[in-house]
Design brief:
about 15% strand, 6 strands
């Protein structure tokens, strides 16, 4: 099972990057899976602009990310809530990726995580984050984990130290891996891709 | 593969009931699957009220529907858009079903369809309809079909006569059946159920 | 200024009923406004069913509530989050009210509150609750208050004892009253009603 | 009344730019209001990145737009639906603007429009577009207009030629102007700004 993981934030040391690393640790320790981790900072892309796409083309950074997405069975993304909604970084990425044909996202499985200083842990943002991925044909796992009060949940070493949150991350990783592992597509990818490419 | 199908509307002759029958025809003709069709009119339940639940108990109609849900691998629901959101009938059903323990919905696959006289076909309602099911641990299929201008898309015999819409229904039924068929859970149900029962 | 207040829950002693009473206290003490409080338990209505509407008519309870809505400038509703979305009780009410012509809801101002035992206070449900009201032409106030950890935020007397939450309720009531008071419509109601009645 | 108008898309000749110009024509012809039109292409900004904000500062383009927003009573934005959600351009703008203190958006009125080749006219995107603005304290007008089948609704001169859509734009502009004109705030701005600045 190949899993691509990244954070929907750019800042070095963002809580979302720490959380997705935590998911990576759980994948390795509990399932022996080495996630393919990408830092979006290494793939700079501009705000989506159809003029850029038509005159210059889809940015190379997006094409490279599309290859890493295509190469994976599943994605794990930890992403912040910005103004009650999806991170603009992540929405920009999805809007660019959706211009690559055939769709690299269609038919993939996705697990969403968040962490924030608030009491809700950014869960509101996660619900909005589901939508563009689902519109691109992604099977977004129904369960999600939002770590609240992140400034105390993570230790100074950047690792999740709150036991309750650790347990939730472990449990959701187990359930997600089991779900993806249970899936043995035969005729599926072609069908799904064709649905996703419909206007 | 056992599929339970029903409409998120009560009215006899509702377009949603016609559409879910259309899905049933596609299941039978294309995949030899006889869907277990339920008419919510045969399962009358009151508006959700915690007092009823605590003093009288969960209504028998809900317990019977819960059994039919539990017995299925997957659900197909056609549901109208009411005031830009989920049908209140369907939300009431989900709120009642979510009180049955263990959760009958957790881990099920769900395909959502809609039809409406409008140009959008009720797709806005479908996006809101996803949420409570996903909150209950349901794997809602990312692709959905919303049939626009339903008054002309369906013939006087109540069958879908618009060819473009028929083709879309056929394709999504094929993709959904392939997706559910590809899934062979081993350890999953227990994990998922435990996630779904967390507060 | 006439304000109608109610909870989107039926249970006697529900936290939402306590919270909306708290809003009533703030309205009275800070602005001298006596809210018109309605308990939905006194207005029993069935699950929405077009057959009932066409064969029997809109229930009297709904028509009576429609009169109270029409008589108010603004509404204050405290409502629980059920399965990540709007309370089915409240959605059922909106679906019934939307069948009354001309629309009693169009052009009204609405403040939404919630309280829940969770860390998010039910804020996710509030965001879904906005939608059907906005679809009916209601001006939903952008700010909302979601009281987290409600079992400790409210004292045994049913009053909000958590100071931080009290302060938030007071501030939002002040801002909402100021906003509604600042509005002096001249040509508006007719225009808005006609927009709301469009398909 | 000062109204700032712009499109949530960058492409020269985008349908959203044509639609917002149409709104400008209606404002001028029907109400004598000259909207302050901004083209986001003239205000280039990068994808939101906290590192940029902390090391370099909020981009000048954003600060200039913030001034134009602050100077207006109301905004009119036509914005496309990308992947079932908000345009990433517009979400990026909101995320940057939300970092300017005090909030330029809090307390403003906003009318949302869209146009798309689809039968739904992009109305799904508009509903997601409301959220981050509302989270920033914006009073988003409940009514919206989504122009379907935009390729035929607009003539070759870039003007809206479909009569039904023209009528809808005229009516919503009338209703929005009446609503904003009816608002005479006294104590409001300070209160609302303080609410918007709360975490």
């Amino acid at each position: 099972m190949k899993i691509l993981s990244f954070a929907g934030a750019l800042r070095a040391g963002s809580i979302s990057k720490q959380l997705v690393q935590e998911a990576g640790r759980a994948l390795l320790e509990r399932h022996g899976i080495v996630a393919d981790y990408a830092d979006l900072k290494d793939y700079p892309f501009p705000v989506y602009d159809t003029d850029i796409e038509q005159n210059i083309g889809i940015p190379d950074s997006i094409l490279q990310l599309a290859l890493r997405v295509r190469d994976a069975n599943a994605l794990i993304i930890a992403s912040p809530e910005y103004n009650g909604g999806i991170s603009s970084v992540l929405k920009t990425l999805v809007d660019w990726l959706s211009r690559v044909k055939p769709s690299p996202l269609a038919g993939k499985f996705l697990l969403l995580l968040s962490a924030s200083p608030s009491g809700s842990g950014g869960v509101l943002g996660l619900w909005h984050t589901r939508v563009p991925f689902e519109a691109c044909g992604v099977h977004v796992f129904p369960h999600m984990v939002a770590v609240p009060r992140a400034q105390t949940a993570f230790g100074q070493d950047g690792q999740l130290s709150d036991e309750k949150s650790q347990k939730k991350v472990n449990e959701i990783i187990d359930a997600f891996v089991a779900h993806v592992a249970a899936h043995h597509p035969i005729h599926l990818p072609k069908k799904e891709a064709s649905l996703a490419n419909q206007p």
